[in-house]
């Protein structure tokens, strides 16, 4: 049994992720494969490992900055450009290529990039 929790309860990629897991585990000799989706507790970026954040950055997606907060956060954390590492960046739109990301642009190298939202 494989248990997965989506980053958002309405994540449109869940069927693909489930199929990919079944295929990969089946290819490695595991059969039958059962994948369960669990929505509680809700997924949080706090579950991301340092290795996972590093891989996001290498792929060109700025990993989440900080930890999910139980209440309001009084400051705005800078988002580092995954291409040139500059903190001189700005959010273009809160809505990125997927609902778990926002679109940012670097003021130094001028490259746009996705930022994984903290939640």
TrEMBL record:
InterPro entries: FSCA_dom_sf (IPR034904), PaaD-like (IPR011883), Zn_ribbon_PaaD (IPR056572). It holds the Pfam family Zn_ribbon_PaaD. Residues 76-117 form the PaaD zinc beta ribbon domain. It comes from the Bacteria. NCBIfam families: PA_CoA_Oxy4. This is Phenylacetate-CoA oxygenase subunit PaaJ. It comes from Kocuria subflava.
């Amino acid at each position: 049994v494989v248990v997965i929790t989506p980053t958002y309860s309405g994540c449109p990629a869940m069927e693909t992720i489930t199929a990919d897991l079944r295929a990969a585990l089946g290819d490695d000799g595991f059969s039958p494969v059962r994948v369960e989706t669990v929505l509680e507790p809700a997924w949080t970026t706090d579950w991301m490992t340092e290795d996972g954040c590093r891989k996001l950055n290498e792929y060109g997606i700025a990993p989440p900055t900080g930890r999910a907060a139980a209440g309001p956060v009084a400051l705005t954390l800078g988002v580092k450009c995954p291409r040139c590492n500059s903190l001189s960046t700005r959010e273009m739109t809160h809505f990125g290529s997927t609902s778990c990301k926002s679109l940012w642009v670097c003021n130094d190298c001028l490259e746009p990039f996705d930022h994984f939202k903290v939640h």
